[in-house]
Design brief:
about 300 residues, alpha+beta
Length: about 300
């Protein structure tokens, strides 16, 4: 794997010996039919297809069977995220970052350079960085990255085994009815709905649980502490929505609002923050505790 000057990782492709093509462009068009030929022409022209030694190749170069080439993605336009991440901790094993709202953790869709992973690669120079877990693009807060590829599984196992305590904060409507029930642990069974962006509750054995606590009230809003026991997609957003108190500025619950691909409205970030992380480091055996420096809009810090 190679990384370009902007911290973006390459992909690798094998040129099999049982096929022959007139040139490299024909091979790439055949191998990746979902990508337009004009896109491959542009990548070749910009030097984004190269040998494993990093030498750019041309679209008309001959096909050489049983070799590998690498290539980079190319985006004609990418939304600019005008917020900066903060590195809270770094050692030879992990990097802990405080992610702003709107910034994806890893490349996908329209996002390549404007991702937490590639920003951190550029800042730290560590090209082996890999996220141990993820939070939604809409959510702000703490994300942990492994530094050494051979150690990543040990950190991921902490999340698999529920050995990481994760604490979130959220701003949502104040409900006197729900306030009387808090604190509580809410459990339900969540599955993907027909709209793949949303999760829905269905009858059956619960597969999610969230501890919910009321922290303070500023009607009509309130600030809640959320501690997920499980880690299902959109779990916190789904649970508060099910209680009739959807998180402020949520564009998915209760109603799925089409995202603006460009010209994002940065004035209305989702009021959900991954605030604290606690775990015992599997390598150093030290207790690790991190707190986000960010605060949600409606309730500035009173410390």
């Amino acid at each position: 794997m190679k990384v370009n000057a902007e911290g973006v990782s390459s992909s690798r492709v094998f040129l099999p010996g049982d096929q022959q093509f007139q040139g490299l462009l024909e091979f790439f068009i055949h191998t990746f039919p979902h990508i337009q030929s004009s896109e491959w022409e542009a990548r070749f022209a910009e030097g984004l297809v190269m040998t494993m030694d990093g030498e750019p190749v041309r679209a008309g170069d001959p096909y050489q069977a049983n070799t590998h080439l690498m290539y980079f993605r190319r985006l004609a336009r990418e939304p600019e995220i005008p917020f900066t991440e903060e590195i809270l901790y770094q050692d030879e094993h992990i990097v802990v970052a405080d992610k702003p709202h709107f910034l994806p953790v890893t490349p996908s869709g329209l996002y390549l350079h404007q991702t937490l992973l590639n920003r951190l690669k550029r800042r730290t120079g560590i090209q082996t960085l890999s996220p141990i877990h993820r939070i939604d693009r809409d959510t702000a807060g703490l994300v942990i990255f492994s530094v050494q590829a051979q150690e990543r599984a040990q950190y991921q196992n902490l999340f698999r085994d529920r050995a990481v305590k994760k604490v979130y904060e959220a701003i949502a409507p104040y409900s006197e009815e729900q306030a009387l029930k808090l604190p509580m642990t809410y459990r339900s069974r969540l599955v993907e709905s027909e709209h793949f962006l949303q999760m829905q509750e269905v009858p059956g054995e619960p597969n999610t649980d969230t501890y919910i606590e009321l922290l303070e009230v500023d009607k009509p809003w309130a600030r809640y502490r959320l501690i997920p026991g499980s880690g299902k997609k959109h779990q916190l957003r789904s649970h508060l929505n099910a209680l009739g108190i959807p998180i402020r500025n949520d564009q998915i619950y209760p109603l799925l609002t089409p995202y603006q691909e460009y010209d994002l409205d940065f004035s209305k970030p989702l009021q959900l923050l991954a605030k604290e992380l606690y775990f015992v480091d599997p390598i150093s055996k030290q207790e690790m505790f991190f707190v986000s420096h960010q605060e949600l809009d409606s309730f500035p810090s009173t410390k």
